[in-house]
């Protein structure tokens, strides 16, 4: 049984305590231990200190789980924080996502509760659990809502300490995933004053994290801070239901005349701007700074090229990924903060190119599996902190993340264990979809979400998700040496039903989805691809698809070696299109083609796969490395690196030069005709194709420039 530490005021049903609970324990150490490990978690969000020093770099702990069933702990090495004699551990606990009660005056996406904030803590000195007695009071944070904001009153002093309550609670488990940390500090780029006493600080980029206030003034002065992504026409922060969400604000009440620094601790914002009221003195540039937060997954990939638009798109996509790379992959860091599942597989390539997410995805997939219901349904969000209706709860392209994401993890990192761990749950999910099918077709869900052309039938997109899940389960069963016959046969039946139901394709999305599934007869594939291309050209080189059709469109065009069409799609100005997204003044990727909704959402970011896998030519998996750069448009150079592999090509007139640095064997395809100068030890294995080993390689080709 796990024993949880609670606060009397917060444990009273229906109570609204004056501040968040704070817990402390004092213990004596006669001789310093060789190792001291503090194990901490909370139902909520904790901030732990040992002798007034933070226990580690992790913030906003613990990560998202179903807090009623499992809470994740982290072990901190606090050996150097102890001293001989009396030591003190202090932990303040906020409600976080575990407890979101109604706050009528401030924004909320949802309300829910697994119970009031509680603490779990255990101290091991040289491997032996040290007995701790905890007291509790109410701290200085007087309000915290995961959505609505946070208030801190520095004039308060915790008093009336009493013994903490002890109760049982959910199980705990250790995480190996990286924690959320402060990864960057932003300085104010501009300060405006839309009216006397109101200042707006521009931190330069849209990010997820905290604003840090540095201020001095009379005790009792209250500063109000309103975060936002955008400004209105009058220069004020604009908080809207479809963007940031609102109203959201934080307050800080000063305790004395000296300089004071504060930032929220128990929730986070998505923001670029901070509107500040109540400053006792005119601001300085360092009055507000930005603390960028994200899960500290190691950055492993970089990309740049000669085209400013493409480089900017890559930057916008990467910033959106970072801003949503929290304990789960969220859709946006402000309005929802929920783990919508389609993005974890639809945009896996750009995520895994930029960051080492092996451990991160393993923990994320545990959360997805825990969200599966008894009948096999995988809801569209995990954890399922609120139960949506219809397609917002049950869409095969969302729920199939339980099948597709482990497969992608295997392809990227060779992770067989995660496939094996979740295989039974995958089978239950496919069985659930089969139980809902009518003549092997599904007809429910959200369709091609975000599409400009909304006429693609939901039955087509839902059946696409169903068949892709079954096809992938067949591949997984093959790797695991499980019986593949049921999935091979079911795939064939679904494909036949798909062909009967959709003998013709009427939208860009339907063409691409059918081609991606392999249900188009070989004799017709060229015609369907040309139909897709013709429609794109007829639309002025614009796509009409949403997030479900987007990746398939780009992939089937690339497979058909129509990079020229993709180039035109990416670079043609106007709406809807990627070039249009770069003209909106955003510093992170917008949610929709028209720029509405969130300005920090990576849903449309799958185009980054084309940048890295084709323009840079870096096609990287756990078992193979193929370098096949594409020269298209007016590009003159592209550089990319992932892990310990780097490619860089430059085009000058008719001279094409490719540099490769690799830590493993690779197959290299040169894209030009003409005379090749290759390293003597590079093994020719086909026209303009070489096999190389680890090392640095230089290839030059002179002749036709494009």
From TrEMBL:
Residues 194-293 form the Alpha-L-rhamnosidase concanavalin-like domain. Transmembrane segments: none annotated. It catalyses: Hydrolysis of terminal non-reducing alpha-L-rhamnose residues in alpha-L-rhamnosides. Residues 298-614 form the Alpha-L-rhamnosidase six-hairpin glycosidase domain. Its EC number is 3.2.1.40. It comes from the Bacteria. Pfam families: Bac_rhamnosid (PF05592), Bac_rhamnosid6H (PF17389), Bac_rhamnosid_N (PF08531). Residues 34-170 form the Bacterial alpha-L-rhamnosidase N-terminal domain. InterPro entries: 6-hairpin_glycosidase_sf, 6hp_glycosidase-like_sf, Alpha_rhamnosid, Bac_rhamnosid6H, Bac_rhamnosid_N, Rhamnosid_concanavalin. This is alpha-L-rhamnosidase. It comes from Kribbella yunnanensis.
């Amino acid at each position: 049984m796990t024993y949880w530490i609670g606060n009397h005021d917060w444990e009273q049903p229906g109570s609204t305590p004056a501040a968040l609970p704070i817990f402390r324990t004092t213990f004596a150490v006669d001789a310093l231990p060789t190792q001291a490990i503090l194990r901490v978690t909370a139902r909520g969000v904790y901030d732990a200190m040992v002798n007034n020093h933070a226990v580690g770099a992790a913030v906003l702990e613990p990560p998202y789980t179903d807090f009623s069933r499992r809470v994740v702990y982290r072990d901190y090495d606090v050996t150097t924080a102890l001293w001989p004699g009396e030591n003190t551990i202090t932990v303040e606990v906020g409600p976080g996502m575990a407890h979101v009660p109604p706050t009528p005056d401030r924004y909320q996406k949802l309300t829910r509760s697994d119970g009031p904030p509680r603490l779990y803590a255990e101290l091991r000195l040289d491997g032996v659990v040290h007995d701790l007695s905890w007291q509790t009071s109410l701290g200085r944070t007087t309000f915290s809502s995961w959505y609505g904001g946070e208030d801190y009153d520095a004039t308060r002093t915790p008093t009336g300490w009493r013994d903490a309550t002890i109760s049982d609670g959910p199980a705990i488990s250790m995480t190996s995933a990286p924690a959320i940390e402060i990864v960057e500090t932003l300085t104010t780029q501009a300060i405006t004053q839309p009216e006397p006493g109101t200042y707006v600080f521009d931190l330069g980029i849209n990010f997820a994290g905290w604003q840090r206030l540095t201020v001095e003034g009379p005790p009792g002065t209250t500063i109000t801070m309103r975060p936002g992504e955008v400004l209105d026409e009058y220069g004020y922060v604009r908080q809207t239901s479809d963007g940031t969400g609102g109203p959201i604000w934080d307050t800080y009440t000063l305790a004395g005349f000296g300089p004071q620094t504060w930032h929220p601790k128990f929730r986070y914002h998505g923001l670029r701007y901070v509107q500040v009221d109540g400053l006792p003195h005119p601001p300085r540039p360092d009055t507000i700074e930005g603390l960028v937060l994200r899960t500290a997954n190691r950055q492993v990939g970089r990309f740049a090229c000669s085209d400013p638009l493409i480089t900017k798109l890559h930057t916008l996509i990467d910033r959106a990924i970072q801003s949503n790379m929290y304990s789960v992959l969220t859709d946006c860091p402000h309005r929802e903060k929920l783990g919508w599942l389609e993005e974890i597989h639809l945009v896996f390539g750009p995520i895994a190119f930029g960051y080492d997410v092996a451990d991160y995805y393993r923990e994320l997939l545990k959360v997805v599996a825990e969200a599966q219901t008894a009948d096999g349904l995988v809801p569209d969000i995990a954890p399922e902190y609120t139960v949506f209706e219809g397609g917002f709860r049950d869409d095969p392209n969302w729920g199939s993340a339980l099948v597709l994401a482990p497969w992608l993890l295997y392809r990227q990192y060779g992770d067989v264990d995660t496939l094996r761990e979740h295989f039974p749950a995958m089978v239950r999910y496919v069985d659930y979809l089969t139980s809902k099918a009518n003549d092997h077709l599904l007809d429910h869900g959200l369709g091609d979400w975000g599409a400009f052309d909304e006429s693609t039938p939901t039955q087509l997109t839902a059946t696409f998700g169903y068949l892709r899940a079954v096809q992938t389960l067949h591949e997984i069963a093959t790797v695991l040496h499980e019986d593949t016959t049921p999935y091979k046969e079911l795939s064939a039946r679904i494909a036949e039903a798909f062909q009967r139901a959709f003998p013709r394709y009427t939208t860009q999305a339907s063409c691409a989805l059918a081609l991606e599934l392999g249900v188009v007869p070989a004799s017709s594939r060229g015609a369907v691809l040309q139909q897709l291309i013709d429609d794109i050209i007829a639309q002025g080189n614009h796509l009409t698809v949403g997030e479900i059709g987007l990746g398939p469109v780009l992939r089937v065009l690339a497979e058909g070696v129509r990079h020229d069409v993709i180039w035109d799609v990416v670079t043609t100005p106007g709406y809807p299109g990627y070039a249009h997204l770069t003209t909106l003044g955003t510093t992170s990727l917008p949610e929709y083609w028209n720029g509405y909704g969130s300005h920090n959402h990576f849903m449309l970011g799958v185009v980054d796969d084309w940048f890295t896998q084709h323009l840079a030519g870096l096609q990287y998996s756990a078992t193979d490395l193929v370098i096949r750069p594409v020269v298209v448009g007016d590009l003159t150079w592209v550089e990319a690196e992932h892990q310990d592999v780097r490619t860089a090509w430059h085009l000058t007139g008719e001279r094409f030069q490719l540099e490769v640095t690799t830590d493993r064997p690779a197959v290299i395809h040169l894209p030009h005709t003409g005379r090749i100068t290759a390293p003597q030890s590079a093994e020719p294995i086909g026209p303009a194709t070489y096999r190389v080993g680890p090392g640095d390689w230089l290839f030059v080709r002179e002749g036709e420039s494009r």
